[in-house]
Amino acid sequence: MSLFSRFEAFELDVLKEVGNIGAGNAATALSRLLDKPVDMAVPKVSLLPFEEVANRVGGSEQVVIAVFLRVEGEAPGNMFFIIQEQSAKSLLSQLLALRPEEQEGYSEMELSALCEIGNILAGSYLSSLADFTHLTMAPSVPSVALDMAGAILSYGLVQYGEMGDSALLIETTFLEDRQELEGHFFLIPDPESFNKIFKALGVTTE
Amino acid sequence: MIEQNLVKVGMADLNIAVDGAVLRTTGLGSCVGLTLYDPVSKVAGMAHVMLPTSDIARESAINVAKYADTAIPELIGRMKDAGANMRRAIAKMAGGAQMFAFSGQSDSMRIGPRNVESCLDMLAKNMITVIAQDVGGNYGRTIEIDSSTGILTIKSVQLGIKEI
User: What class of enzyme is it (chain B) (predicted)?
Assistant: First the structure.
Protein backbone atom coordinates (compact mmCIF):
# COMPACT_ATOMS: atom_id res chain seq x y z
CA MET A 1 0.00 0.00 0.00
CA SER A 2 3.05 2.22 -0.15
CA LEU A 3 1.69 3.90 -3.24
CA PHE A 4 -1.08 5.55 -1.29
CA SER A 5 0.42 6.05 2.11
CA ARG A 6 2.66 8.68 0.66
CA PHE A 7 -0.19 10.74 -0.72
CA GLU A 8 0.00 14.17 0.73
CA ALA A 9 -2.96 16.18 1.95
CA PHE A 10 -2.44 18.43 -1.03
CA GLU A 11 -2.75 15.56 -3.45
CA LEU A 12 -5.92 14.37 -1.80
CA ASP A 13 -7.27 17.88 -2.25
CA VAL A 14 -6.49 17.65 -5.94
CA LEU A 15 -8.48 14.43 -6.17
CA LYS A 16 -11.33 16.06 -4.27
CA GLU A 17 -11.36 18.78 -6.88
CA VAL A 18 -11.43 16.13 -9.58
CA GLY A 19 -14.56 14.71 -7.91
CA ASN A 20 -16.01 18.17 -7.52
CA ILE A 21 -15.71 19.09 -11.16
CA GLY A 22 -16.97 15.78 -12.45
CA ALA A 23 -19.87 15.47 -10.06
CA GLY A 24 -20.73 19.15 -10.41
CA ASN A 25 -21.35 18.61 -14.08
CA ALA A 26 -23.25 15.43 -13.45
CA ALA A 27 -25.43 17.22 -10.88
CA THR A 28 -26.17 19.91 -13.46
CA ALA A 29 -27.16 17.23 -15.93
CA LEU A 30 -29.46 15.59 -13.39
CA SER A 31 -30.94 18.94 -12.47
CA ARG A 32 -31.75 19.58 -16.15
CA LEU A 33 -33.28 16.14 -16.52
CA LEU A 34 -35.50 16.66 -13.51
CA ASP A 35 -35.97 20.38 -14.00
CA LYS A 36 -35.33 20.78 -10.28
CA PRO A 37 -32.45 21.96 -8.15
CA VAL A 38 -30.07 19.21 -7.12
CA ASP A 39 -27.67 19.59 -4.20
CA MET A 40 -24.32 17.98 -4.02
CA ALA A 41 -22.27 17.15 -0.95
CA VAL A 42 -18.58 18.03 -0.77
CA PRO A 43 -16.73 15.12 -2.39
CA LYS A 44 -14.93 12.68 -0.16
CA VAL A 45 -11.67 11.10 -1.11
CA SER A 46 -10.82 8.14 1.04
CA LEU A 47 -8.55 5.20 1.22
CA LEU A 48 -10.96 2.58 2.51
CA PRO A 49 -10.45 -1.05 3.51
CA PHE A 50 -12.48 -3.25 1.10
CA GLU A 51 -14.78 -4.21 3.91
CA GLU A 52 -15.88 -0.63 4.47
CA VAL A 53 -16.52 0.45 0.90
CA ALA A 54 -20.01 -1.03 0.86
CA ASN A 55 -20.81 0.60 4.20
CA ARG A 56 -20.89 3.92 2.39
CA VAL A 57 -24.14 2.91 0.72
CA GLY A 58 -25.78 1.08 3.59
CA GLY A 59 -23.72 -2.07 4.10
CA SER A 60 -22.66 -5.12 2.17
CA GLU A 61 -26.13 -6.69 2.01
CA GLN A 62 -28.07 -3.53 1.25
CA VAL A 63 -29.94 -3.94 -2.02
CA VAL A 64 -29.09 -1.11 -4.38
CA ILE A 65 -29.33 -0.27 -8.02
CA ALA A 66 -25.98 0.32 -9.61
CA VAL A 67 -24.93 1.47 -13.02
CA PHE A 68 -21.39 0.41 -13.73
CA LEU A 69 -19.10 1.80 -16.39
CA ARG A 70 -15.56 0.87 -17.06
CA VAL A 71 -13.51 3.96 -17.85
CA GLU A 72 -11.10 3.36 -20.69
CA GLY A 73 -8.36 5.58 -22.01
CA GLU A 74 -5.30 7.20 -20.50
CA ALA A 75 -6.54 7.11 -16.91
CA PRO A 76 -8.61 3.93 -16.65
CA GLY A 77 -10.81 3.12 -13.71
CA ASN A 78 -14.22 1.97 -12.58
CA MET A 79 -17.24 4.11 -12.10
CA PHE A 80 -20.45 3.37 -10.23
CA PHE A 81 -23.63 5.36 -9.93
CA ILE A 82 -25.51 3.90 -7.00
CA ILE A 83 -29.01 4.67 -5.82
CA GLN A 84 -31.29 3.12 -3.25
CA GLU A 85 -34.48 1.51 -4.45
CA GLN A 86 -36.64 4.28 -3.02
CA SER A 87 -34.67 6.89 -4.93
CA ALA A 88 -34.87 4.82 -8.08
CA LYS A 89 -38.66 4.66 -7.88
CA SER A 90 -38.84 8.37 -7.30
CA LEU A 91 -36.52 9.03 -10.22
CA LEU A 92 -38.62 6.86 -12.50
CA SER A 93 -41.88 8.48 -11.53
CA GLN A 94 -40.49 11.99 -11.90
CA LEU A 95 -38.82 11.43 -15.22
CA LEU A 96 -41.01 8.99 -17.00
CA ALA A 97 -44.27 9.22 -15.14
CA LEU A 98 -43.90 5.51 -14.49
CA ARG A 99 -45.76 4.41 -11.41
CA PRO A 100 -43.95 1.36 -10.21
CA GLU A 101 -45.24 1.25 -6.63
CA GLU A 102 -47.72 -1.55 -7.16
CA GLN A 103 -45.47 -4.33 -8.23
CA GLU A 104 -42.25 -5.58 -6.75
CA GLY A 105 -39.12 -5.40 -8.79
CA TYR A 106 -38.46 -3.61 -12.02
CA SER A 107 -39.50 -4.09 -15.60
CA GLU A 108 -36.96 -4.26 -18.38
CA MET A 109 -38.06 -0.78 -19.40
CA GLU A 110 -37.49 0.67 -15.94
CA LEU A 111 -34.05 -0.86 -15.58
CA SER A 112 -33.13 0.36 -19.02
CA ALA A 113 -34.28 3.88 -18.11
CA LEU A 114 -32.21 3.84 -14.93
CA CYS A 115 -29.22 2.58 -16.88
CA GLU A 116 -29.59 5.44 -19.33
CA ILE A 117 -29.84 7.99 -16.52
CA GLY A 118 -26.66 6.58 -15.02
CA ASN A 119 -25.07 6.72 -18.43
CA ILE A 120 -25.94 10.38 -18.96
CA LEU A 121 -24.68 11.37 -15.53
CA ALA A 122 -21.50 9.35 -15.73
CA GLY A 123 -20.89 10.65 -19.22
CA SER A 124 -21.07 14.25 -18.09
CA TYR A 125 -18.88 13.45 -15.09
CA LEU A 126 -16.22 11.91 -17.28
CA SER A 127 -16.32 14.37 -20.13
CA SER A 128 -15.81 17.32 -17.78
CA LEU A 129 -12.98 15.45 -16.15
CA ALA A 130 -11.43 14.69 -19.51
CA ASP A 131 -11.67 18.36 -20.50
CA PHE A 132 -10.10 19.44 -17.25
CA THR A 133 -7.20 17.00 -17.33
CA HIS A 134 -6.78 16.70 -21.13
CA LEU A 135 -6.68 12.95 -20.63
CA THR A 136 -8.83 10.69 -22.74
CA MET A 137 -11.46 8.97 -20.64
CA ALA A 138 -14.11 7.06 -22.48
CA PRO A 139 -16.88 5.23 -20.67
CA SER A 140 -17.74 1.71 -21.75
CA VAL A 141 -21.32 0.72 -22.51
CA PRO A 142 -23.11 0.95 -19.16
CA SER A 143 -24.44 -2.04 -17.32
CA VAL A 144 -27.10 -2.02 -14.64
CA ALA A 145 -27.60 -4.36 -11.71
CA LEU A 146 -30.01 -4.64 -8.83
CA ASP A 147 -28.17 -6.49 -6.11
CA MET A 148 -26.28 -6.42 -2.84
CA ALA A 149 -23.96 -3.44 -2.55
CA GLY A 150 -21.05 -5.61 -1.44
CA ALA A 151 -21.31 -7.88 -4.46
CA ILE A 152 -21.54 -4.95 -6.85
CA LEU A 153 -18.79 -2.80 -5.43
CA SER A 154 -16.32 -5.64 -5.00
CA TYR A 155 -16.31 -5.85 -8.77
CA GLY A 156 -14.66 -2.45 -8.91
CA LEU A 157 -12.00 -3.38 -6.38
CA VAL A 158 -10.33 -6.24 -8.17
CA GLN A 159 -7.56 -4.05 -9.54
CA TYR A 160 -6.71 -3.04 -6.00
CA GLY A 161 -6.77 -6.58 -4.71
CA GLU A 162 -3.40 -7.27 -6.29
CA MET A 163 -1.71 -4.60 -4.25
CA GLY A 164 -3.39 -4.37 -0.91
CA ASP A 165 -6.57 -4.54 1.06
CA SER A 166 -7.88 -1.06 0.52
CA ALA A 167 -8.96 1.12 -2.38
CA LEU A 168 -8.88 4.83 -3.04
CA LEU A 169 -12.19 6.18 -4.11
CA ILE A 170 -13.66 9.54 -4.95
CA GLU A 171 -17.21 9.72 -3.72
CA THR A 172 -19.92 12.31 -4.26
CA THR A 173 -23.47 12.30 -2.99
CA PHE A 174 -26.43 14.01 -4.62
CA LEU A 175 -29.55 15.12 -2.90
CA GLU A 176 -32.65 16.37 -4.54
CA ASP A 177 -34.60 18.68 -2.25
CA ARG A 178 -36.19 17.11 0.79
CA GLN A 179 -33.85 14.18 0.26
CA GLU A 180 -36.34 12.27 -1.80
CA LEU A 181 -33.60 11.29 -4.09
CA GLU A 182 -30.13 10.34 -3.08
CA GLY A 183 -27.46 9.08 -5.41
CA HIS A 184 -23.80 8.20 -4.99
CA PHE A 185 -21.03 8.43 -7.47
CA PHE A 186 -17.93 6.35 -6.97
CA LEU A 187 -14.95 6.88 -9.19
CA ILE A 188 -12.31 4.27 -8.45
CA PRO A 189 -9.32 5.02 -10.68
CA ASP A 190 -7.00 2.11 -11.31
CA PRO A 191 -3.94 2.36 -9.08
CA GLU A 192 -1.77 3.31 -12.06
CA SER A 193 -4.04 6.18 -13.03
CA PHE A 194 -3.27 8.46 -10.13
CA ASN A 195 0.14 9.53 -11.31
CA LYS A 196 -1.28 10.28 -14.75
CA ILE A 197 -4.01 12.43 -13.25
CA PHE A 198 -1.53 14.28 -11.07
CA LYS A 199 0.86 14.79 -13.94
CA ALA A 200 -1.91 16.07 -16.20
CA LEU A 201 -2.84 18.61 -13.57
CA GLY A 202 0.73 19.73 -13.01
CA VAL A 203 1.08 18.21 -9.57
CA THR A 204 4.55 16.78 -9.24
CA THR A 205 4.98 13.41 -7.64
CA GLU A 206 8.36 11.89 -7.23
CA MET B 1 -32.13 -18.05 12.06
CA ILE B 2 -30.66 -17.91 15.54
CA GLU B 3 -27.69 -15.61 15.50
CA GLN B 4 -25.73 -17.36 18.18
CA ASN B 5 -21.98 -17.49 17.88
CA LEU B 6 -21.95 -15.86 14.51
CA VAL B 7 -18.45 -15.48 13.13
CA LYS B 8 -18.21 -12.90 10.40
CA VAL B 9 -15.77 -13.46 7.58
CA GLY B 10 -14.90 -10.24 5.78
CA MET B 11 -13.75 -9.73 2.23
CA ALA B 12 -10.36 -11.34 1.63
CA ASP B 13 -10.62 -12.96 5.05
CA LEU B 14 -10.92 -16.47 6.46
CA ASN B 15 -11.94 -18.09 9.72
CA ILE B 16 -13.00 -21.34 11.34
CA ALA B 17 -15.90 -22.30 13.61
CA VAL B 18 -16.44 -25.06 16.15
CA ASP B 19 -19.10 -25.96 18.73
CA GLY B 20 -22.09 -25.11 16.59
CA ALA B 21 -20.94 -21.61 15.68
CA VAL B 22 -21.99 -20.20 12.34
CA LEU B 23 -19.66 -18.66 9.79
CA ARG B 24 -21.05 -15.98 7.54
CA THR B 25 -19.78 -13.84 4.70
CA THR B 26 -21.87 -11.21 2.94
CA GLY B 27 -22.04 -9.73 -0.52
CA LEU B 28 -20.13 -12.26 -2.58
CA GLY B 29 -19.96 -11.06 -6.15
CA SER B 30 -17.08 -12.29 -8.24
CA CYS B 31 -15.46 -13.45 -5.00
CA VAL B 32 -15.83 -17.08 -3.99
CA GLY B 33 -17.07 -18.19 -0.59
CA LEU B 34 -15.29 -21.47 -0.02
CA THR B 35 -16.22 -23.68 2.92
CA LEU B 36 -14.60 -26.84 4.26
CA TYR B 37 -16.21 -29.10 6.80
CA ASP B 38 -15.20 -32.13 8.79
CA PRO B 39 -18.48 -33.85 9.70
CA VAL B 40 -16.97 -35.88 12.53
CA SER B 41 -15.13 -33.23 14.55
CA LYS B 42 -17.67 -30.65 13.35
CA VAL B 43 -15.05 -28.08 12.48
CA ALA B 44 -16.03 -25.68 9.70
CA GLY B 45 -13.86 -23.23 7.83
CA MET B 46 -14.70 -20.44 5.43
CA ALA B 47 -12.64 -18.23 3.14
CA HIS B 48 -13.82 -15.21 1.14
CA VAL B 49 -11.48 -15.50 -1.82
CA MET B 50 -11.10 -12.44 -3.99
CA LEU B 51 -8.46 -13.34 -6.58
CA PRO B 52 -7.39 -16.60 -8.22
CA THR B 53 -3.66 -16.62 -7.67
CA SER B 54 -1.03 -14.91 -5.57
CA ASP B 55 1.29 -14.83 -8.62
CA ILE B 56 -0.26 -11.52 -9.56
CA ALA B 57 0.26 -10.01 -6.11
CA ARG B 58 2.15 -6.75 -6.07
CA GLU B 59 1.78 -6.11 -2.38
CA SER B 60 4.74 -6.48 -0.07
CA ALA B 61 3.06 -8.55 2.63
CA ILE B 62 0.59 -10.98 1.10
CA ASN B 63 -2.80 -11.37 2.69
CA VAL B 64 -3.09 -15.16 2.36
CA ALA B 65 -6.88 -15.12 2.70
CA LYS B 66 -7.27 -13.13 -0.50
CA TYR B 67 -5.94 -15.61 -3.06
CA ALA B 68 -7.35 -19.04 -3.80
CA ASP B 69 -3.91 -20.69 -3.92
CA THR B 70 -2.87 -19.39 -0.50
CA ALA B 71 -6.21 -19.27 1.33
CA ILE B 72 -6.99 -22.98 0.96
CA PRO B 73 -3.72 -24.28 2.52
CA GLU B 74 -4.06 -21.73 5.32
CA LEU B 75 -7.65 -22.77 5.99
CA ILE B 76 -6.66 -26.43 6.01
CA GLY B 77 -3.90 -25.68 8.53
CA ARG B 78 -6.21 -23.72 10.80
CA MET B 79 -8.81 -26.49 10.75
CA LYS B 80 -6.21 -29.14 11.55
CA ASP B 81 -5.10 -27.06 14.54
CA ALA B 82 -8.70 -27.03 15.70
CA GLY B 83 -8.83 -30.83 15.60
CA ALA B 84 -10.23 -31.52 12.14
CA ASN B 85 -9.12 -34.51 10.13
CA MET B 86 -8.82 -33.15 6.61
CA ARG B 87 -9.07 -36.58 5.02
CA ARG B 88 -12.73 -36.50 5.98
CA ALA B 89 -13.22 -32.92 4.90
CA ILE B 90 -15.74 -31.96 2.25
CA ALA B 91 -15.98 -28.70 0.39
CA LYS B 92 -18.88 -26.53 -0.66
CA MET B 93 -18.58 -23.27 -2.46
CA ALA B 94 -20.67 -20.38 -3.74
CA GLY B 95 -20.08 -17.12 -5.57
CA GLY B 96 -17.84 -16.48 -8.55
CA ALA B 97 -20.54 -14.52 -10.32
CA GLN B 98 -20.12 -12.28 -13.30
CA MET B 99 -21.84 -9.18 -11.94
CA PHE B 100 -21.79 -7.18 -15.13
CA ALA B 101 -21.61 -8.42 -18.68
CA PHE B 102 -19.60 -6.63 -21.32
CA SER B 103 -18.57 -7.37 -24.82
CA GLY B 104 -14.86 -7.69 -25.45
CA GLN B 105 -14.07 -8.63 -21.90
CA SER B 106 -10.57 -8.39 -20.62
CA ASP B 107 -9.31 -11.13 -18.38
CA SER B 108 -9.64 -9.11 -15.20
CA MET B 109 -13.36 -8.72 -15.89
CA ARG B 110 -13.75 -12.53 -16.01
CA ILE B 111 -12.54 -12.72 -12.46
CA GLY B 112 -15.50 -14.72 -11.06
CA PRO B 113 -15.09 -17.85 -13.23
CA ARG B 114 -11.32 -17.70 -12.77
CA ASN B 115 -11.72 -17.65 -8.99
CA VAL B 116 -13.92 -20.73 -9.19
CA GLU B 117 -11.48 -22.61 -11.43
CA SER B 118 -8.59 -21.81 -9.17
CA CYS B 119 -10.45 -22.95 -6.03
CA LEU B 120 -11.39 -26.24 -7.72
CA ASP B 121 -7.75 -26.77 -8.73
CA MET B 122 -6.47 -26.17 -5.22
CA LEU B 123 -9.08 -28.47 -3.68
CA ALA B 124 -8.17 -31.22 -6.14
CA LYS B 125 -4.50 -30.82 -5.23
CA ASN B 126 -5.38 -31.23 -1.58
CA MET B 127 -7.65 -34.17 -2.37
CA ILE B 128 -10.75 -32.58 -0.95
CA THR B 129 -14.03 -33.45 -2.67
CA VAL B 130 -16.42 -30.70 -3.65
CA ILE B 131 -19.85 -32.08 -2.82
CA ALA B 132 -21.93 -29.05 -3.74
CA GLN B 133 -21.53 -25.70 -5.40
CA ASP B 134 -23.63 -22.76 -6.41
CA VAL B 135 -21.39 -20.66 -8.60
CA GLY B 136 -21.61 -18.34 -11.57
CA GLY B 137 -24.65 -16.38 -12.62
CA ASN B 138 -24.82 -12.63 -12.43
CA TYR B 139 -26.00 -12.05 -8.91
CA GLY B 140 -24.59 -11.54 -5.43
CA ARG B 141 -24.79 -14.03 -2.60
CA THR B 142 -24.54 -14.09 1.17
CA ILE B 143 -23.61 -17.44 2.66
CA GLU B 144 -23.60 -19.11 6.06
CA ILE B 145 -22.30 -22.47 7.18
CA ASP B 146 -23.47 -24.08 10.37
CA SER B 147 -20.64 -25.98 12.05
CA SER B 148 -23.06 -28.36 13.76
CA THR B 149 -24.55 -29.65 10.49
CA GLY B 150 -22.29 -28.49 7.67
CA ILE B 151 -25.31 -27.09 5.84
CA LEU B 152 -24.48 -24.13 3.64
CA THR B 153 -27.25 -21.55 3.34
CA ILE B 154 -27.14 -19.22 0.36
CA LYS B 155 -29.15 -16.04 0.13
CA SER B 156 -29.53 -13.91 -2.96
CA VAL B 157 -31.72 -10.98 -3.89
CA GLN B 158 -33.42 -12.57 -6.85
CA LEU B 159 -33.58 -16.21 -5.84
CA GLY B 160 -34.18 -16.03 -2.12
CA ILE B 161 -32.71 -18.65 0.20
CA LYS B 162 -31.44 -22.09 -0.64
CA GLU B 163 -29.45 -24.75 1.16
CA ILE B 164 -26.82 -27.05 -0.22
Answer: hydrolase
